[in-house]
Amino acid sequence: MKYRCIDIFCGAGGLSYGFSFSDCFEIIMANDCNTDAVKTYKTNHPSVLMRCCDIAEIKEEELLELGRVDIVIGGPPCQSYSTLGKRQMDDKATLFWEYIRILSILKPKIFIFENVVGLLSMLKGKLFETICRAFDDLGYRVSYSKLNAADFGVPQNRERIFIVGCKKSIGNKHFVFPSQKTKTKVSLREAIGDLPEIESGEDGNNKNFLFEANNDFLKFVRKQKILTEHTSPQNNSNLCSIMRMLKDGEGREDLPISIRPKSGYANTYAKMWWEAPAPTITRNFSTPSSSRCIHPRDSRALSIREGARLQSFPDDYVFCGSDTAKRLQIGNAVPPLVSIALAESVREFLFLNL
What we know:
Elements: E1 3-8, H1 14-21, E2 25-32, H2 35-44, E3 49-52, H3 60-64, E4 71-74, H4 96-106, E5 110-116, H5 126-137, E6 140-148, E7 159-167, H6 188-192, H7 216-221, H8 237-245, H9 304-310, H10 323-332, H11 336-353
Parallel strand pairs: 1-2, 1-4, 2-3, 4-5
Antiparallel strand pairs: 5-7, 6-7
């Protein structure tokens, strides 16, 4: 018997990836209101029933028609909780109530709720308490953990909060989160060093890889021989000069006064570290004025393929929409290698308790 799952606020499908990767699970429905993300999800998960709409439009009758649902996964929009944002309780910040509504109707055995670490401190911790109390009131034993994607073979330091709820009726054990999978973190060089060297504005598609997949990460992501989405954004000559002047890991403050941008934070106009995991990837991974995203070897902004690699998306994963839309989907996603680890822990929990 396969466990039946739905993915709400599914985005490009990063969290779904681990559950579709395993033979133990079947994703029967997904939902998101972003049309480009929906196209991406449907392209990569063609057998899943997709509902492209505001989640509030999905009525109880429609959910009950799905039949048995064992697992609900998803991460409501998190920009409102980010420590880098305004941290306001706007409409998006209250979408967790829709997640709770879905749980109250479907009553799955287990759920996974993903969000940014800033959720823990939002409203001085009261919001997190409210959410966990609501899960408890629905009959779930709640556990949570802060996971760093780099601990699971993702070449990126990316911390996120995962709340897992298990029906109290199926046992008295708390969910056991996956433990660190790799002792040595995957570096930028190991993750994207095989991609052709290109300059600002240059197209690297259909070029040959520089070498064969020589580590576990490359063996995971190298799913096709034809390289796609490897084009560097075109930047002006002044920015190109800045990027070439920077050394590995250097940033705005390391530049001579004569060429240093007058505005920007410490992590802007900054090169990444070639021998370390990337910093957290956001939608701005091609914009040096907004994030640390300058390629340490090639002195340019990252390509879409490189951003996807740093999130651990395999090379055959297709992203739809404009380049801006693709970067948004990649920056918002749960890394597939993290979802694989979570799916395995869910499988083990259900095997031991059912």
